[in-house]
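Usage

Read records sequentially. Each one opens with the input sequence:
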Amino acid sequence: MEADQFKALFLQTVHNRDNPYHPLVWINGDPQIGAGTYIGGFSEVNAKGAKVKIGQDCDIASFVAINVADSHRRCIGLAEANDCADIEIGDCVFIGSHCAILGGAVIGHHSVVGAGTVVRAGVIPPYSLVVGNPMVVKPRYYQLDIEARERAASADDSP
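and closes with the structure output:
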């Protein structure tokens, strides 16, 4: 069996579709994913029922769940359908391994989400560090360092 035949059979077997990231990344719905973004194996991006927008040049590690749907109220009989809410991840965001990004989350550009963090609905400012469950947000944690680096690069480019 040729490699492309094996890949097609594998994707069919695991109910997945081909994507530019990894054969073991599950993409559901139609998320908007920016150029230069990496998504590691065994991650899922579920955009069924709401919008997912992931910026450019993000690094999403393995075993990350980005999921617009919350089924717990439906499962216990308190709702007829899943609750769904949009997710937005800015440019140049790092999301560590084994994180869950849940519906309603907005993560500002140049932020870092530490491994194992559960990000719930709410707005995280740009340049932030987010860690833990429950999550702790350190707003603008990286802002001064990044701005200093950008100023230094601009100074290097001047004649």
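Summary fields computed downstream for this record:
- The longest strand covers residues 26-28.
- The domain at 24-157 is CATH 2.160.10.10 (UDP N-Acetylglucosamine Acyltransferase; domain 1).
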